[in-house]
Amino acid sequence: MKKYSFKNDYSSLAHYEVLSALSEAVKTQHEGYSEDIHSQNAAALIKCRVNQSNVDVHFVSGGTIANLIVFSAILRPHEAVIACDSGHISTHEAGAIEGTGHKICTVSSVDGKLTAAQIESVVLAHTDEHMVKPKAVFISQSTELGTVYTKSELCDIYASCRANDLYLYIDGARIAAAINSRVCDMTYSDIAESVDVFYLGGTKNGALLGEAIVICNDDLKKEFRHIIKQRGGMLAKGATIGVQFEALFKNNLYDDLAKHSNAMAYRLAEGIKELGYEFLVEVESNQIFPIFPSKVVEKLMQNYDFHEWVKLSDKTAIRLVTSFDTHKSVIDEFLDELSCYS
Amino acid sequence: MKKYSFKNDYSSLAHYEVLSALSEAVKTQHEGYSEDIHSQNAAALIKCRVNQSNVDVHFVSGGTIANLIVFSAILRPHEAVIACDSGHISTHEAGAIEGTGHKICTVSSVDGKLTAAQIESVVLAHTDEHMVKPKAVFISQSTELGTVYTKSELCDIYASCRANDLYLYIDGARIAAAINSRVCDMTYSDIAESVDVFYLGGTKNGALLGEAIVICNDDLKKEFRHIIKQRGGMLAKGATIGVQFEALFKNNLYDDLAKHSNAMAYRLAEGIKELGYEFLVEVESNQIFPIFPSKVVEKLMQNYDFHEWVKLSDKTAIRLVTSFDTHKSVIDEFLDELSCYS
Amino acid sequence: MKKYSFKNDYSSLAHYEVLSALSEAVKTQHEGYSEDIHSQNAAALIKCRVNQSNVDVHFVSGGTIANLIVFSAILRPHEAVIACDSGHISTHEAGAIEGTGHKICTVSSVDGKLTAAQIESVVLAHTDEHMVKPKAVFISQSTELGTVYTKSELCDIYASCRANDLYLYIDGARIAAAINSRVCDMTYSDIAESVDVFYLGGTKNGALLGEAIVICNDDLKKEFRHIIKQRGGMLAKGATIGVQFEALFKNNLYDDLAKHSNAMAYRLAEGIKELGYEFLVEVESNQIFPIFPSKVVEKLMQNYDFHEWVKLSDKTAIRLVTSFDTHKSVIDEFLDELSCYS
Amino acid sequence: MKKYSFKNDYSSLAHYEVLSALSEAVKTQHEGYSEDIHSQNAAALIKCRVNQSNVDVHFVSGGTIANLIVFSAILRPHEAVIACDSGHISTHEAGAIEGTGHKICTVSSVDGKLTAAQIESVVLAHTDEHMVKPKAVFISQSTELGTVYTKSELCDIYASCRANDLYLYIDGARIAAAINSRVCDMTYSDIAESVDVFYLGGTKNGALLGEAIVICNDDLKKEFRHIIKQRGGMLAKGATIGVQFEALFKNNLYDDLAKHSNAMAYRLAEGIKELGYEFLVEVESNQIFPIFPSKVVEKLMQNYDFHEWVKLSDKTAIRLVTSFDTHKSVIDEFLDELSCYS
User: Fold this and answer.
1) Taking the CA of residue C231 as centre, how many other CA atoms within 13 Å lie in the half-sphere pointing to its CB?
2) Segment D198-219, tens digit of pLDDT
3) Is D326 in CB contact (< 8 Å) with chain C?
């Protein structure tokens, strides 16, 4: 039995306020298929948070199904998605996007970010009907490497998308970690103004499960619920998710959880830096990638769970992820142990 | 505000024992993607309940995604599914099976049941490579009309499947209602012996969400988790479902809930019969289809929610569904009101 | 070795004028992928024949691929096609439409024709997002039973399509046989005015292979060549088809071949009638369905190839198909033989 | 009007012996769907040529549809194909493979060839059920850069495939150019022994259209015709292709045409070399990639058609392709003109 798992931010099942809301909700009957009052309330709160009253909000069970539903809904068969080679849809969704018929055109990225210039290079390389037609761009905010797009970077990407007739989609599995990052210079409202469709992640920020897809572009709203249903993303007990998002958004819980998670990551990173170690990429949110001698990594693995990210000769970069539920004491204990190996 | 909804058996979110198990589970960390202890425990309990130690058990979020994952996993592109025209995959899943590329060959049914003879007639009609090849049979136990296959009927169907090189799949969204039906002459173990793959429904029997796919045929087990992942059915917080199924199966809760649900349906049906009304089909589980004068239906709709099933000249058959959470008093109040209209 | 095959209208590979055009065309180089002069000429001739200058014309290799390309291009994933149960896409294309993800909603038909009323009944039955959304109608002209839609029937269907936001598609594998039918009261131009997209069949009317898809509705034209390419329908040597359609349409060859084919069917039908036999459906084009005592059918099968269509107690309806290449003498010889069995 | 097109090897529609065979074949009736005598003869000749009597041979209309049919037939939904980034399925088939649901995992290649080491690196990188599972390898022989795998290279690849449970598929659009290359050390028989499935290209070697898929691995043969039909690859007039392959294989025509095509490419390359120019890759078959000053390229484009392949500062590599129909005089005239610009 290990002391703690830094493998991911979904090891702890749910924040108690979320569970408490569910405990209250079981006392009454609810309309099915996300047409209940709580889902409606949650949608209203999200519209308020992103400061746009006319977006459509849909609740689904997880990130992979959110991604495949969106691309299935907005793309014709020959249309493709542009993404980083580190993008979640490209690496860790078992071919979910291709499974709905669409190619992903990848470009390489060191820090997990895509650039406007890369988007344009992909568009320029697809010139005729013998090739797929790039029609959407996928980015993650925060990225799979914990980095956070700045407002300026996002605006450049969105401008490139509009110039090239591309839809911009943001995988917001960890969007709360991004918005509440110490390097972030934008709000949820800024996001909603610079994107065609995105989702607000619940699973990785305190909910038992659930993501909220937000459609900003009117052209993409039509019969979206048909697609959710067809792909198996519509829960009969939709209120199960609606109740949780209502709890997360009716006050600042959604952001507070992310702030805590980030704070724990920063504390962890500071301690590691003080012990003289470097990082694979900048520490900007709740995923950090310190580089340790491989022997140190071996020792750490005896008491802690985490992913080895990449081998670098005799060193190894590992991924440490904090969550809404990570306690200061866990961080300090880890650092104590690390200091013994240094 | 209506008094009660008989629209379905998923209006009440969860049984308190299920929720209580979740409340306990949030205190610790869990392995992701259904590889946690609770999911393993739940799988072990299910193996025990079906009396087969070597089946594979997988947890997914809902019925439609369970169905599309199974057929996506076990069929080649030209292979088709045989089902009743009233089968859920044929009518109410927005083309989920076709969405993964497979045709459904339907036959008409009055009571929601498929027969071995019908299966054979479909097989005989598909003779060459210009047609799809029937390769799987889909039945629901209990059916969409609340009826329950007898052991003999199921054995005939399975024998026909084996004779014709077809996989038999049971949609068990309401399998607990079937097994605990007053007309049922079989056990979970009998089911597992007469089927290639099926699922045990949680959503419609007391869980917040979740279904347990049980694969009995070894040939269908390979890399099933890849398919679950690809179709978006694998929850990061898989323990959310595992914990609930553990609670449902560690004692008799799963069956007790269904027994209660059925008992409420029988009580309701008896009362309706006593008032002189007839039914569209036999009352065998928690979905009943009484036939009322359309004027009576209009009056009932003022205080109750339910589905109008089919218009029959000046009468209407409606669907009334009871659940684990339906109280005797609700039934009696409904019957009182009905007696006033009679 | 049998005397003759009435199994279909594609047993004879090509009319000599078509082959002669190919023999001429091999002398020079041609642009690839249907961008050659001959394909352009053929498209221009077809635009002229349908009396519409702004339709798009695309050449593909066969009927099944024409059908799947069109529905793949014009439908979103949850959208379905309405068709007769005797429709080719429903019975004899091995699930090609479902293979691209779309359900076919079938209605039963005795004479192979769909009616406006049937279309509306399907639309009315699909009321919400738990069901597929009917978005296109498939009819064959002439039908799989050799019958021919009248102008009035087609107009009613198209009006129903426009009223219900449905695209109308005509499978014109045998459209020349329909237009040149003795019961036909419309022209190619009438067709083009009452349809969103259709194809003019080459394979079953004198070409080695090839069909010409004609897109009348501007909304359906965008990036159609991408879809043709993606589905494998774009021939590198597109001129192979263009040359043939140029030969078929540069004078009246396309219609002359169908007239001959129909005339042979009528001659055959008259002879059969004179011998006292009845038909399953009216004789309207080059597919006829006489009903013979099963013993007579057995004898005929010794010298002739044809399909047995349906058993009717001790009789059998068979399908006899004539082609551009069927000689009068073959008909007369068949009738002579039949008279011996009567 | 330009003097000649070196854009590809499918500008000339067909060799006269092929057309002559078709002219003969139109005189009689043929069984449909490739079940005619000529298709059977052609299949028998191919089995003889590859020296394996128990392979299955199927005729389809083109390369893209051959590729998508094969992968659609042999892969489960989560299974992926490994290919070079220059592979035809990856670049120039408009997402045909993804369109049937499968990801292509690409590796970079300078000379168009894939190596056993690259295959293994892809396999090693796909470790769990969150990723696609590599299950097939795609290579082109000759490659998209005109290079030719040696017997040793192919054996290494096939050994790697067997070791890693991968099917090996060869796109043989230009397999005759490869086998008859001056650097080739293998026979058709060697190919058939080192592959699970491949196709012999007709379109790019003298046929009007058509490719012959050869299935060597028994496990991949089942119900293949269903898949051909479902994907729209089965021609009603299958004899159209069968007759042509019979003509190509009943003597040495298939190889003779490729030998001529290669010889013209070598003559062209020799002349270019003598004028002092270099090549992007070795000249091994009928596609050559000389590097000229961009100004020379501009001049050449006035009289000749060809593809500009890649810009290299002030130079441009172009692709020149010769065919069965390219005359010596055309080569010499081109070289004369080039010498004027040098």
Assistant:
1) 29
2) 999 999 999 999 999 999 999 9
3) no
Tell me, yes or no, if B99 comes closer than 8 A to chain C by beta carbon.
yes
**Chain B residues within an 8 Å CB radius of A67:** 232
Residue with structure tokens 């009518």? B91
DSSP secondary structure code for residue A160 in this structure: H
Residue C225 sits at the chain A interface (C-beta within 8 Å): yes
How open is the CA angle A266-A269-A274, to the nearest 5 degrees? 125
Contacts across the C-D interface (CB distance below 8 Å): 164
Q: For residue range C288-332, what is the model confidence (pLDDT) as tens digits?
A: 999 999 999 999 999 999 999 999 999 999 999 999 999 999 999
Whole-angstrom Cα distance, residue B66 to residue C251? 58
**Chain D touching partners, 3 or more CB pairs below 8 A:** A, B, C
Is-contact B211 B201, C-beta < 8 A?
A: yes
pLDDT exceeds 80 at position C342: no
Can you tell me whether residue B3 is helix, strand or coil?
Answer: coil
Distance between C179 CA and the closest CA of chain D, angstroms: 22
Please tell me whether residue D204 adopts helix, strand or coil conformation: helix
Q: Using a CB–CB cutoff of 8 Å, tell me whether B8 touches chain A.
A: yes
Q: What are phi and psi of C236, to 5 degrees?
A: -55, -45
Q: Tens digits of per-residue pLDDT, D5-59? A: 999 999 999 999 999 999 999 999 999 999 999 999 999 999 999 999 999 999 9
Cis? peptide before A152, omega within 30° of 0: no
C-chain residues within 8 Å CB-CB of D89? none
Q: Which chains does chain B touch, 3 or more C-beta pairs < 8 A?
A: A, C, D
- Which residues are paired to D310 by β-bridges? D317
CA neighbor of D241 nearest in space, from D70, D62, D59, D67: D59
Question: Which residues in A82-119 are b (16+ Cβ under 10 Å) and which e?
Answer: bbbebbbbbbbbbbbbbbbbbbbbbbebeebbbebebb
Tens digit of pLDDT for each residue in B130-145? 999 999 999 999 999 9
CB contact under 8 A, D133 and B226: yes
Q: How far apart are CA D12 and CA C26, in angstroms?
A: 6
Q: Are D13 and C31 in contact (CB < 8 Å)?
A: no
Q: How large is the ipTM? A: 0.97
Q: What is the pTM of this model?
A: 0.97
**Range of lowest pLDDT (C215-219, D155-159, D272-276, D310-314):** D310-314
pLDDT, tens only, B34-93: 999 999 999 999 999 999 999 999 999 999 999 999 999 999 999 999 999 999 999 999
| Whole-angstrom distance, CA of residue A181 vs CA of residue A149 | 10
Confidence of residue D1 (pLDDT cuts 50, 70, 90): confident
- What single-letter DSSP state applies at residue A219? G
The minimal CB distance from C133 to the residues A129, A132, A223 is found for A223
Contact D234, D228 (CB under 8 A): yes
Count of C-beta atoms within a 10 Å radius of residue D174:
29
CB contact C91 to D (< 8 Å): no
What is the C-alpha separation between B201 and B190, in angstroms, rounded? 17
In one-letter notation, the amino acid at residue D183 is V
Q: Which of B64, B44, B71 is nearest to B55 (CA)?
A: B44
Q: What is the pLDDT of residue D307?
A: 97
pLDDT number for residue A1:
72
The pLDDT-based confidence of B16 (bands split at 50, 70, 90) is very high
Across the strands, what pairs with C169? C138, C197
Q: Chain A residues with CB inside 8 Å of C225's CB?
A: 129
Nearest to A5 by CA among A270, A340, A318, A254: A318
The Cα-based distances of D174 to B10, D7, D106, D136, D262 in angstroms read 60, 15, 21, 20, 11
